[in-house]
Amino acid sequence: MMLGELNLPIGLSVKAANTNDSLFMAQLFYSTKTFFYELGLPSEVVETMLDQQYRLQEASYREQYPNANTYILFYHQQAVGKVMLDISEYRIHLVDLIMIPSMRGQGFGSATLANIKQEAIKRHLPVGLSVEAENTRAKKLYLQHGFKFESCSETHELMRWDGLT
Fold first, then answer.
1. Structure pTM?
2. Which residues contact 13 (CB under 8 A, 6 or more apart)?
3. CA distance from start to end of the chain
4. Dist CA 65 CA 94 (whole Å)
5. pLDDT digit string, tens, across residues 109-127
6. For every residue of 19-85, which 3-state class applies, written as one string?
């Protein structure tokens, strides 16, 4: 749908995720939870905890955003990330955006955000997202792209880009 038409940098492409991408998406999630490995627990326990957390997140996303679409980002045919979008008549909600650790800071997140914002302008919609409060790297990226803080909970901060910034 939308992301297939993105004007992405050379070498970066996107495709709709399918069940064959499940392991890759789980590994992406695990890569964002490195603190679990620092708890000093046996690796089997950590892997079980991460798997449970991933399954809970996936179930939560399906419940909150039943119409969301998930895409896998590729750089020269190598899977490098995931983006999940929920598009309604009122807004585009960026549900999830993750890059593999070796590709973070390479501009792929910025390119993806820039294209989501282009689509939002075409549709005359704002872009919303929720970011973990302690995820300073992601918050910095979103602020650089003109997102503004709307509200906070104990664990997350809601941000919005309305096309006027």
1. 0.88
2. 73, 74, 75, 77
3. 26
4. 10
5. 998 999 899 999 999 999 9
6. HHHHHHHHHHHHHCCHHHHHHCCCHHHHHHHHHHHHHHHHHHHHHHCCCCEEEEEEECCEEEEEEEE
What 8-state DSSP symbol labels residue 9? P
Predicted confidence (pLDDT) per residue in 62-92, tens digit? 999 999 999 999 998 899 999 999 999 999 9
* Three-class HEC string of 89-112: CCCEEEEEEEECHHHCCCCHHHHH
3-state secondary structure of 12: strand
In this structure, what token pair is assigned to residue 95? Answer: 């549900």
Token pair 């792209």: residue: 145
Burial of residue 97, with CB atoms counted within 10 A of its CB: 0-12 exposed, 13-18 middle, 19 or more buried: buried
